[in-house]
Structure formats: structure tokens, C-alpha cells
């Protein structure tokens, strides 16, 4: 039963040792332990705040990145559209220039053909006239080879002149 009901002296000395231990712990150890716990609690709170701020900054950066991507996509689309329009315009201008050049070449070719045709007709007329003169000369020589034929022709021409 000694274990269940301790002696008064044992209780006194145990209480006295406990109080001394409590005094020593409170005086020398309790404050540094509490300050360390408080410092650790403050560091944890600061770390949580920093983590929350970092999370907010990351969200802001992510939103900014999304905006930049949207702007870049819009700018890319505008550049591609402008490039397509410019290419189409250049193709149309090239087609128009080629058509104009072809029209100029056709007009020049037509003019050259007309000039050559006129020259050919003039040369043909000259040759026909020369041939006609040669034929007429040969016919007249054949017709006027005798004196009687020359006189008859002269009288006929003189009669035609008087009638006109």
C-alpha cells in the first residue's frame, strides 16, 4: 500500500523539487523556448504570407502572359492578313501590268502589220504599174509597128480629144 499512499515527507520533497524545477525552467529555459516557438511561428506566418503573395503574383503573371499571348496572336493574324492582302495586290498589279504590256505589244504588232501591209500594197501597186507599162509598151509597139497603124491611132486619139 505504500505505493498508493505515499508518505508526507516524500510528497513534500517531491513538491519542493517540482517547484524548484518549475522555477528554474520558468526563469532560464521557458523564455528562450517560448521566444524560439514564437520566432518559428512568426517565420511560418511570414512564409505563408510570402507564399500567398507569390501565388497572387503568379496569377497576375499568368494573366499578363495570357494577355500577351492574345495580343501576339492578334498581331500575328493582322500581319498574316496584311501579307495576304499585299500578296494579292501585288499579283493583281502584276496581272494588270502584264495585260497592259500585252495590249501595248498587240497594238504595236497591229501597227507594224498595218505598216508592212501598206508598204506591201504600195510595192505591189508599183510593180503592177511597172508591169502594166511594160505590157502597154509592148502592145503599143506591136500595134504601132507599121505607119498605117500609127496614123489610124493618131486620128482616133485626135477624135477622142475633140469630143471631150
Report what the structure shows:
- The chain is an all-alpha fold and 164 residues long.
- The protein has a domain at 26-127.
- Helices cover 93% and strands 0% of the residues.
- It contains 2 helices and no strands.
- It has helices spanning 8-143, 147-163.
- It is rod-shaped.
Can you summarize this structure?
The protein has 164 residues and is mainly α.
Task: Outline the fold blueprint.
Elements: H1 8-143, H2 147-163
Short descriptors:
mainly alpha, 2 helices, rod-shaped, 93% helix, single chain, 164 residues
Q: Cα distance, first to last residue?
A: 187 Å
Order of helices and strands: HH
Number of helices: 2
Which radius of gyration do the C-alpha atoms yield? Answer: 65 Å
Major β-sheet annotation: none
Which regions contain 5 or more consecutive residues with pLDDT less than 50? none
Strand content: under 5%
Shape: rod-shaped
